[in-house]
Amino acid sequence: MSNSAVRIDVRPDNVAVLTLDQAGSRANVLTAALWHELEAALISLRTRIDLGGLVIASAKPGIFIAGADLKFFAGLPGPNDPTVRQFIDLGLRVLFLLESLPFPTCAAIDGAALGGGLEVALACDYRLVGTHPRVELGLPEVTLGLIPGWGGTQRLPRLIGLQHGKAMLRVGKSCDASRAVEQKLVLRQVESGQLIDAAAELLLNLPPETWDGQRRLKYEPMLLPDSTQAPEDSLQTMPAAVREVTKCVNDGVRLLLAEGINLETEAFLRLAGSDESKQLIAAFFAARKKT
């Protein structure tokens, strides 16, 4: 029996389905090993010009991807650790690869997509959600003294708009399926049993100029008035993570996507391993033990 966390099946309609199923875990957690497996799978697909699209799904009931391995960040000696840069760069490389595939992609989310899990979905061209009661989408990193590290500060505002994106990032609050549809974070909600079929049908019926044009638009800066900038004095009174995520959004969305993500990476490195972040992560683990 294979211990691979990534399985690829090609449907009769030539849509590939990439299913995540991490062995020995109730959730799919973004470890370096999983990123490497995902990268290998995407490399194997990028020359498949016969494919009509790619659906990314999870075999875990009620969970799409739970996010990064917090134990890794809890044990850091301090900020600006080179191992953190390597880990972040690995995930970014995989997501840029996902965004460059020669066919459209859709995340089929039937459960929790949190932190890095939502960032994977944001790198897809489209997102559908199922009807599982545990459907939940969010970027809760600020509650752990961190910010999203795999492009979330840049892809989210470009998708749902600056106001909604910034609010979601600065508070770290998740949204349910109906709210996600309302904010255009996902395209629509589909019965769980029909989710993969609906995603495949969506991809097969897209004209190339639709999904390719949408990708190109995401790479470009957002055109915004200067009034969207937060005053410097108000930034100084914010908790470190909220301050960093605010600056990342304000400054980064005015740049090309890759340039904005560079700002995000440097901000993430300043926060990961900080005393504040490690204390909040420790409190998170302590609270989880009590439940």
UniProtKB/TrEMBL annotation:
GO terms for molecular function: enoyl-CoA hydratase activity; long-chain (3S)-3-hydroxyacyl-CoA dehydrogenase (NAD+) activity. It comes from the Bacteria. CDD domains: crotonase-like (cd06558). One of its GO terms (biological process) is fatty acid beta-oxidation. Pfam families: ECH_1. InterPro entries: ClpP/crotonase-like_dom_sf (IPR029045), Enoyl-CoA_hydra/iso (IPR001753), FA_oxidation_alpha_subunit (IPR050136). This is Enoyl-CoA hydratase. The lineage of its organism: Bacteria, Pseudomonadati, Planctomycetota, Planctomycetia, Gemmatales.
